[in-house]
């Protein structure tokens, strides 16, 4: 057995170095002769160890891939013979044997640098089935690394299904013996590799691409809750990319009759994100809902965008309780809502009212102040005349000033940190922004009085950051004056 295996290895190496001998190998039908010889050796040794048999077939496969690289049927035949030898043996627990099977399965990947070619081998997944769960995960990682290394795109739903079956050791909870758990770092690395793989599954045809992401959804949602926070985000991103490739309804000759529409895909997105709050990953679901809302905005789908925002608000109210997480979440809400143009007056008022309400309820006064003045941008968008309400901009800024004053009083009484004069300077910058935009409610007098208030703060010299920020603000105002023109004239009116 060892002699035969080494003979095939030497012949493989010789063929790799001397291409001129390949016609001779074909002429003498070397593959058939070696295959028959292996069959006779195995037949003559009924108690041959699995390791020995797999080693023979591994050597034959490598020989076949070198000498007959275009004959996938030969490679599949070798794998089929290996399956026949393994049948009835159950999962292979011999460490050396499993390593040899991994070597056998890795050979086509190394030769063709293309997983798609390996997917054409019908007996390939049958060999994988004889591996134990740990080795299946190793083999799945080898397959994914091959895809990433060679930038291999898997372009059809059929091939994606076959691939996911091959790597199911990473995307499904397998029956593990009690007490055997995967190392947490290894698990995260494995799931990150699956996440990267999602972006290699692609087709230019929108219908085929929707089939691909539907297959991914089917496998990922049954993969166990621990995996969802890794696998759902790339699936959402891939789906959002598909939405951007859809023709606008006027350009689509099929209109709503098309099998893949934006509405259908948004329903699909909602279904997969709904699984996340139960993982639990409410913060992740929150972010994805906002991303989907923005995508619906670009598709002019107001009801869908409003529903995604509603789901994000529900998560904010019911699941996000940490004060720092609330601040971050509110920044995302305000930033996303500011970019939305699809909402009518009623829906936009409802959402902005909620956002400003959330701002005033944050735990810390400085956080309240910053969130409230950030909300001012929700009421004045330059490129949307219907969203230009100077009164509400001013109201937000006045509320922010009131909260900043309260924070200053708390600081001066020793109940909080000093230096809240920074808040007044930040609000001044907002006043200047809207003053420059020409909002009539933001007057010269209001800007000047705020500057005077900041100058009068006794804590100013003891706060280097605030001092630097105020100096930069005044420098900016002077720079705007030097510009001349309409902007320069407006800043000339402000007496510092």
Automatic annotation (TrEMBL):
Protein name: Vacuolar protein sorting-associated protein 35A-like isoform X3
Keyword Iron: no
Domain of life: Eukaryota
Principal localisation: membrane
Pfam families cross-referenced by the UniProt entry: Vps35 (PF03635)
Signal peptide bounds: none
Membrane is among the record's keywords: yes
Membrane protein topology class: Peripheral membrane protein
Native source species: Camelina sativa (False flax)
């Amino acid at each position: 057995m060892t002699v035969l295996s080494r003979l095939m290895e030497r012949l493989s190496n010789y063929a790799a170095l001397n291409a001129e001998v390949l016609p001779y190998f074909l002429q003498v039908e070397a593959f058939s002769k070696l295959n028959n010889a292996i069959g006779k050796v195995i037949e003559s040794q009924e108690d041959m160890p699995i390791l020995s048999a797999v080693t023979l077939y591994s050597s034959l496969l490598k020989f076949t891939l070198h000498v007959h690289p275009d004959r996938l049927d030969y490679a599949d035949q070798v794998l089929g013979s290996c399956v026949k030898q393994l049948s009835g043996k159950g999962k292979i627990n011999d460490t050396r044997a499993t390593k040899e099977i991994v070597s056998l399965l890795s050979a086509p990947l190394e030769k063709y640098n293309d997983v798609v070619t390996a997917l054409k081998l019908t007996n390939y997944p049958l060999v994988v089935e004889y591996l134990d769960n740990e080795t299946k995960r190793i083999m799945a990682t080898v397959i994914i690394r091959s895809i990433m290394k060679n930038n291999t795109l898997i372009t059809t739903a059929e091939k994606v299904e076959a691939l996911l079956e091959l790597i199911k050791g990473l995307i499904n909870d397998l029956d593990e013996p009690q007490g055997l758990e995967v190392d947490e770092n290894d698990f995260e690395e494995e799931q990150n590799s699956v996440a990267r793989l999602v972006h290699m599954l692609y087709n230019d045809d929108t219908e085929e691409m929707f089939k691909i992401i539907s297959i991914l959804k089917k496998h990922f949602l049954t993969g166990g809750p621990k995996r969802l926070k890794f696998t759902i985000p790339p699936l959402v991103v891939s789906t959002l990319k598909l939405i951007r490739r859809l023709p606008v309804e006027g350009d689509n000759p099929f209109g709503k009759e098309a099998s893949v529409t934006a509405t259908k895909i948004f329903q699909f997105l909602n279904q997969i994100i709904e699984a996340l709050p139960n993982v639990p990953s409410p913060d992740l679901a929150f972010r994805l809902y906002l991303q989907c809302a923005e995508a619906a905005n670009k598709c002019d789908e107001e009801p869908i965008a409003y529903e995604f925002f509603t789901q994000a608000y529900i998560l904010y109210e019911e699941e996000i309780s940490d004060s720092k997480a609330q601040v971050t979440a509110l920044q995302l809400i305000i930033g996303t809502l500011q970019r939305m143009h699809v909402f009518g007056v009623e829906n936009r008022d409802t959402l902005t009212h909620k956002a400003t309400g959330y701002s005033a309820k944050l735990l810390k006064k400085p956080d309240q102040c910053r969130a409230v003045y950030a909300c001012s941008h929700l009421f004045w968008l330059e490129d949307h005349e219907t969203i230009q309400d100077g009164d509400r901009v001013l109201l937000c800024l006045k509320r922010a000033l009131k909260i900043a004053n309260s924070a200053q009083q708390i600081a001066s009484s020793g109940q909080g940190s000093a230096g809240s004069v920074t808040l007044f300077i930040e609000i001044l910058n907002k006043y200047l922004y809207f003053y420059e935009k020409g909002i009539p409610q933001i007057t010269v007098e209001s800007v000047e009085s705020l500057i005077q208030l900041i100058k009068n703060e006794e804590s100013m010299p003891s706060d280097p950051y605030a001092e630097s920020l105020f100096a930069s603000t005044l420098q900016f105002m002077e720079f705007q004056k030097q510009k001349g023109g309409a902007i320069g004239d407006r800043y000339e009116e402000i007496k510092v």
